[in-house]
Design brief:
Blueprint (H helix, E strand, L loop, with lengths): L4 H16 L7 H8 L3 H13 L3 E4 L5 E4 L8 H7 L27 H17 L2 H5 L14 H8 L1
Antiparallel strand pairs: 1-2
Helix pairs in contact: 1-2, 1-3, 1-4
Length: 156
C-alpha cells in the first residue's frame, strides 16, 4: 500500500500555504520551488482543491492561492479526498461481488487489511494542517496503541 504523489504533494503544498499565513495569496510558483514539486502538477492539484472549497485564488501580479479555512479546521483526509487520492489496502474493490482472489471469496487476511484502511482513514481525519505546522503529528497514532497486557493475553 502506498500513498501516491497526488495526496502527498497536495498535503505538502497545503501545509506550505498554511505556513505562509491565512488570507494572503501565495503564488504556486513559490510553493513549487519551496516544496520541489512541478508547477504544472501543482496547478492540476490546486484546481481540484479549489473545486473542493479548500482554497481560493486571485489572478494578477499579487494573486495566488490561500486557505479558505483556518489550518486547524482543515483535515489531511479532506485534502487527500479533494485530489481524488484513494488509499487502498485490500486487493478487492469495495462493494464488488468479487473477493480478493478474483472469486466470490475473500482472502484470509482481508479483515486485517480492511481494518488497516479504516485506521489510516481515522488517523488522517484526526490530523489537521495546524497539527503539521505545530509538529504535533509524531506520536499521534500511539493513542490507540495496544498496551503490553494486550500482547500477553494474545500469547497465552
Amino acid at each position: 500500500m502506498k500513498l501516491n504523489t497526488k495526496g502527498r504533494y497536495a498535503v505538502s503544498a497545503m501545509a506550505d500555504l498554511a505556513a505562509m499565513g491565512s488570507g494572503t495569496p501565495v503564488a504556486l510558483s513559490d510553493v513549487a520551488l519551496r516544496q520541489g514539486i512541478s508547477l504544472s502538477y501543482l496547478e492540476q492539484l490546486f484546481a481540484k482543491l479549489k473545486r473542493s472549497g479548500l482554497v481560493e485564488s486571485a489572478r494578477g501580479a499579487a494573486g495566488g492561492y490561500w486557505l479558505v479555512n483556518a489550518p486547524a479546521d482543515i483535515r489531511v483526509a479532506d485534502i487527500i479526498a479533494a485530489v481524488d487520492e484513494e488509499i487502498k489496502t485490500t486487493a478487492c474493490a469495495g462493494g464488488s461481488v468479487l473477493g480478493c482472489q478474483g472469486t466470490t471469496t475473500r482472502c484470509l487476511t482481508h479483515d486485517l487489511w480492511d481494518e488497516l484502511g479504516r485506521q489510516i482513514e481515522i488517523f488522517l481525519n484526526a490530523v489537521s494542517l495546524e497539527d503539521i505546522l505545530q509538529k504535533r503529528v509524531l506520536g499521534m497514532a500511539a493513542v490507540n496503541a495496544p498496551n503490553d497486557q494486550t500482547y500477553k493475553g494474545a500469547a497465552e
